[in-house]
Amino acid sequence: MGLLQEFRARARYVLGPLLGVLAVGYFAYHVVQGDRGLFAWWNIKQRVAAAKAALETSRAERELLENRVRLLNPGSLDLDMLEERALLMLNYGHDDDIVILEEKKRRK
Q: Which of 90, 69, 96 minimizes the C-alpha distance to 81?
């Protein structure tokens, strides 16, 4: 009986700090690995950077297309642009044109 009482007496002094260390360890683990932890934050930060880069390429492409449409606007019609589009759409060319065929770029 003396040994059991000794364990109970020492457990009172050890059990509190042990539970505290376990609670701190639990929360520290979830700060790093949890759904809203550091690794998740870094992952989201990388995804946001990739999305911003995609947005910038989309904006640049949109501005390019808007400029080409603006050149075909009846109020400010660019005859060179009109001729280029007509020849391209009708698959025609001038006798002295040099045609260079390029492979189409695939979008990912």
A: 69
